[in-house]
Every structure is written in C-alpha cells, then in structure tokens.
Amino acid sequence: MGxxxxxxxxxxxxxxxxxxxxxxxxxxDSKQLPSPPSVGTSASAQPPPLPSRQPSIIHRTATSxxxxxxxxxxxxxxxxxxxxxxRDLTQIYKRKIRPLETTYNFEGFHSAPLTDSDILAKPMxxxxxxxxxxxxxxxxxxxxxxYPGSHIGVEPTTDRFVAVMNGSESRVIPGNAAAVxxxxxxxxxxxFGQAFLTRFQVSQCPxxxxxxxxxxxxxxxxxxxxxxxERGYDFTKTIExxxxxxxxxxxxxxSHKLDxxxxxxxxIFALKGxxxxxxxxxxxxxxxxxxxxxxxxxxxxxxxxxxxQTPEVMRVYLASFWLHKPSNAFEDCRAxxxxxxxxxxxxxxxxxxxxxxxxxNEIVKRARLARVHAYIIGHLRKEMPAxxxxxxxxxxxxxxxxxxxxxxxxxxSVPAGDFPNVTAFRQSLEAYRFENxxxxxxxxxxxxxxxxxxxxxxxxxxxPQYNPLLELNQKNPFLGPPEVFNTLNSNSKSDIPxxxxxxxxxxxxxxxxxxxxxxPIEGKINGSTAKPYLMSTGLSVDLLAKIWxxxxxxxxxxxxxxxxxxAMHLIRAVESGGxxxxxxxxxxxxxx
Length: 592
Known about the structure:
By secondary structure, the chain is an alpha/beta fold. It has 19 helices and ten strands. The strands form two sheets. The protein has an eight-stranded mixed sheet, sandwiched between helices. Strands 9-10 form a two-stranded antiparallel sheet. Strand 6, helix 9 and strand 7 form a beta-alpha-beta unit. Helix 3 runs parallel beside helix 11, helix 3 packs antiparallel against helix 15 and helix 18 packs across helix 19.
C-alpha cells in the first residue's frame, strides 16, 4: 500500500474498504505506490518506503482456475533500482576476476567470460520438460497473450530454444543475430555452432511481465525412439549453459507422462550445482481425480528420487495451466490446485526483487571456481618436466587426476566442494599441452582474493535489510470480524480534553525506550513483534485491533517510532476514558 496524502491521512476509517486493513482480500490497485530509494544513496530524514509497499509482479491471487481469465494473475512491474550495484559489480568482475579466467583458460573448461549484458540481464526462467507438458501454454498463461513464433500442439511443436523478452514491438530476432548483439545476454551461444543458432530465436513483444523477466522456452525433450534422433548440437551442454544463467528452473511433467527418458535424465544431470533454482511442476493435475492424483504424485516423487541425487526433497507444484479448460477436467482438487499455483506465482514474483543479490551470488560462485581452476592449472604446469618425458608425464597426471586434486586441496587449503567434476575436467585436459599452461601468479590470485574477501561482501552490505512483504491478513496482528469496530460507540463523548488529540501531547520519552527494545528494522516493527507488549496492557483484542488500525496511518502493517508512540497514546486514552474515548478516525492533529 502506498502512503496516503496529507488530506487523506486524517480521514481514514477503520471500516473503510481498500485502506490496507486485514479484512480485505485484495490490494487496492487505485493507490500509487512509491518507488524504493536507489541502493548506495544516503538516507533522507523521512523513513524510506518499505519493500512491502513496492509494486510486485504478481500481486493478486488467482481465485479460480476454471477458465483462462479466472486463473490468470495481474502483473505490475517491479521498480527496484540497483543500477549502481550492477555497475560496480561489472567493474569488479572486469578488473579482478576476468583476468584470472583468461590467464588460466577458464573458458576452455567451464564457460566463456561474462559480458556486460550477462551481468545486467533481467532474471531468467528456464522451462524444461518433455513435449506436450504445457511449457508454451504456461508462458502464454503468464503473459496473457501469444508471442511471435509460439505454437501449441500434442506433437513436439516447439523445435527450438525461444527466449521470450520484452520489446517495443512484436518481432523475432534469429539466433545468429541474437548471438552477436551486445544488448542481449546470449553472446556466449555461438560456441554451440550454426546447428544450434538456427534452432534459437528471441521473440520480443510488449508486455509488463517481461519488463522484469526473460522466459526461456525449450524444445520438448524426446522419449522412446524419438530421443535417438540427432539434434545436430549438444542439447545437454546447451541446457547447462542456460542453467548457469537462470534464476529459476522449472521442470514440467504431465500427470499422464511421468517417465523420464534418457535425454531428460541427462538434462537433469546438467542442472547439478543449481539445485536451489529447480522447481517441479506437475501440470494438468485436474486431468485425474483426487485419488489418482495422490498416486501420480507419489510416482513422480519416486521417479525424481532415482534421478536427482540430493538428500533434500524437490519442491513440486500441483498445477493446471490451460488456455481453454477441457470439459472433462476434475474439480475435486480445485482449491488445492489454486493454492499451489499461488505459491508458484509467488516464486516468480520474488525473482526481480532478489535479482541483484542473485547476480552477486553467481559472481561469487564463479570467482571461487576460477580460483580453484587456477590452482589446478598452475599445479599441473609445475608437475611437468623441463625437457624430456612431457607426453608420458601428462598422461600420468590425467589418469591420476583425483590424486592431483587432493594435492591441490592440501597445498592451498581449498574446500573439496569447490573442485569441478573429475571426469569432465579430465576430458577437457586432453585438448591441451600442460607445458603451455600458465604458472601460479600470486598478483592475479591476490586481486581475485581481494574481490572475494572485500569487494563482493562490501556490495552485499549495500543491500538494505528490508522488512518482509506482508499479506493483507498479516497487517493487523489483532484480527477480528469486520463488524467488530461497528460495536464501538465512537461518537460518544468522553472527558478527555481536546488538547490530548494533538501530536505535541504524545510522550515519546516513555514510548521510545520501549520501541527500541523491540529491535526495529529500518525504523519499523511488525505486528508479531509488537503484539506481545501491546497484549500486556490488558486491553481486549477488539480494542487493540482498532488502536493498531488508527496508529498505522501508512497502512503498511508496520509501526514506525511515531506510530508506536501514537498507539501508546491511544492506549492511555482508553485506560483513562474507556473504550468510548477512541475516535472513529485519527484526527489530523495527531499526525507528526
């Protein structure tokens, strides 16, 4: 919710709909929401707006999934401004991390150096799944329109990688042009050759959602005899490239198509190291009844357990995204599907807000890997003889690579989890002559270490410790039925003098120590923090609910120091004059 203007602050009614009260189910779209301050700028005297009042990409819960219109959610672009962070992050990478990568040929073993467009790219969502599991339909459901080049059918219709992005007009950029464009984050795709670039395109269309996200639609993964058809490019390596750059990876399954083919299995293996990004969607869940859905869910978890080698349970969303709901859909699990879809949309909503932090995290992961890579390459160069027996020594080192990894780990005190896959690393080494490798360069390593230990943590400290986004039913900790305030005869007279209803009469010397003892974040406390103390006053929940509504004039679910002081002032009014002393609306004179 935004800040009301000065004239509206004093006339807020506790029972008025759309004022941020927890009795309402939806946000009030009519109010203008303020933009958050830029990161790195000095704080002003006025408390900055909380992120709970920032526009969110998905800010209304789907109320029904019986038709496309009833399941679609409304989207509003986020306005987070982290341009300074992105600029500084780009400079740190260019000056301190990329020299380490180029010196020790990081590209030949892992991935090409990042470009400015890679770091400045919008959050990316990668969609994976077998054909006809609903990936393209899911994109159309989100953006609520077609996009250039989209096609839906029961056969494998999407035969290419499609990056769905925002643009001033609807158009298609072919793969070769996209791979050389400095404005697009796809310049590293030329490593996969012409066979792939002819199967890649960028589809641009004007859409509010796409102002904050890029959606990557992939070819349907083939099953059975179809998977033996040669694609002409390394599909698994391509998936790995996109997974490294994605902020969220969605694996699609059909309720009638739970088998995991060899190609799908290899694609899931390519996601190793990115498990925190992966979510699973069991689509078309309304095509089976409740009992069958329980069995289908169990079968899916069993299949995933055989493929995904992690002790954690993968998050699975039950969903049903249709452009036109079929007539034979089951309705007995509709409420469950709507809640699951709301959780999935919340995951998508959080992406742009956390994009800058994710960028820093990816740079840190890359820098740690590049540092270990430099240690390995420098160690192999050191182990080579000066004149004779170079080929035999190289073969010996490659065959005993696991032992060499242990030596590097002990020599440089590197965590075992930072080392790359031994088999893949051994295969990459076959293309090189070890005597041409660079030796260990302490100046280059020291600069990279400085980035890891000083520069990147310094950027992380620039992110504000935001209070969390609150749902409407969390904004008032003293919940009650809407009619509860109507029982208070607030029009009755009391013996409290008019001067009491001025902010100058608020005693902050009493309220301030209490407020500070509740450990405010950015000068605010939430309902769960304030509730225990307010309950200790002995007032009824109904009265405290009205006091909270009157004191929270910003309608954000948090109390600032001034708002908390007014709340304590209102409590003293009730203690002196009874519940009839509370006004229906907060007087204008009570605002600081």
